[in-house]
Amino acid sequence: MTRYILNRIGQTAIVIAIMSFVIYGLIGLMPGDPIDLMIAADPKMTSADAAELRELYGLDKPIYERYRNWALAALEGDLGYSRLYAQPVLDVLWPALANTLILLGLTMFFSIIIGLPLGIIAALKPYSKVDYFVNFLAFGGISTPSFWLALLLIIFFSVQLGILPASAMVIGNNAGFWEHAAALALPVMTLTIHSIASYSRHMRSNMIEIMRRDYIRTARAKGSSEQRVVLKHALRNALIPVVTIFGLDFGTLFSGALVTETIFAYPGMGKLIFDSIMGNDFNMALIALLFATLMTMIGNLLADLGYGWLDPRISYQGNS
User: Which domain holds residue 50?
Assistant: First the structure.
């Protein structure tokens, strides 16, 4: 196990190094740079001033040389300054990462405690009214675009009922617990509805397949109660494919909640990445995208470790 984890950490470091070069190159090829923004903001700036600034910040050098200088500084712990926020990159990144962790944790928690039981109930009564109802809800959740769902929730809970804020901007330094909870309610609800649909569908299909296996019939023939058969023999094996979905969602919610975070003005990683790219904040966009890549790799590692916990037959010995 230890050797496997160390190998995965090494693979993650290689992927992060490759992604840093790719992302840096793509950002460097984008039209415009911070100096162009300065020229647009200051009509008195001459071309000589712009050339001097580009030389000062190293923007006149080839992109591979600029990447090398950035990588050496990053290895020493200097991740640069955010032009858009006028702060060190890490000072901006940590609050956004903490906000995303809260959003991610709540979404995962509600998705699992609601989606998995719905899938199990539907699988235990296949092709019944309960099963059709769960399938209807799941297909509806999967098919509904997140931006449209978010707008519907805003119209209903904020405009019509007026019980929840339409924007997370109400969260301030002096905001209390209930203010935070109210501001998080609609973003969490939007992401959770999609995740519940996915978890319930996968759980249902896996449970139906597992319940037809020979060892389930053997357990019943030995006199095991239905509860023991479902919880001990079927559920553990049916969860293995669901763990894959968890690993994918773990990384997706860190970087893929852009639409939801933008609509609700939630200060998380998705909105930070979008604002940084639109504002040509190269340092901030680069580090935020690398963190999203790292979270995806961590989610995959957690999923792989979950396989071994659910099924003792899975071994991590030998080649990783």
Answer: 2-84
Distance of alpha carbon 281 from alpha carbon 270, whole angstroms: 15
CATH code (residue 189): 1.10.3720.10
The tally of domains found in the chain comes to 2
Integer angstrom CA distances of residue 44 from 40, 41, 48, 175, 234: 10, 9, 11, 43, 73
- Answer yes or no: do 17 and 111 share one domain: no
The yes-or-no verdict on residue 260 having pLDDT over 50 is: yes
Q: Are residues 117 and 198 in the same domain?
A: yes
Verify that 124 and 270 share a domain, yes or no.
yes
Of 53, 68, 84, which residue constitutes the final position of a domain? 84
Q: What is the pLDDT of residues 184-242, one digit of tens each?
A: 899 999 989 988 988 999 899 999 999 888 988 898 898 888 888 888 888 888 888 88
Are 300 and 246 in a shared domain?
Answer: yes
Query: 270 vs 43, which has greater pLDDT?
Result: 270
Rounded Cα distance between 318 and 200, Å, is 35
Measured at the CA of 248, the angle between CA 247 and CA 252, to 5 degrees, comes to: 125
Single out the residue of 258, 257, 260, 133 nearest to residue 200, CA to CA.
133
Look up the pTM and report it: 0.78
Specify the length of the chain in residues: 320
Q: Could you give the CA distance from residue 24 to residue 1 in angstroms, rounded to a whole number?
A: 34
Whose tokens are 């019943």? That residue is 220
36-84 pLDDT per residue, tens: 667 766 777 777 877 777 777 777 778 888 888 888 888 888 888 887 8
Contacts for 241 with CB less than 8 Å, ≥ 6 apart: 202, 206
Per-residue pLDDT of 126-137, as tens digits, reads 889 999 999 998
Which two three-digit tokens encode residue 30?
């984008």
In a domain, 315, yes or no: no
Mean pLDDT across the stretch 316-320?
56
Distance separating alpha carbons of residues 290 and 284, to the nearest angstrom:
10
Decide which of 53, 84, 115 is a domain's last residue: 84
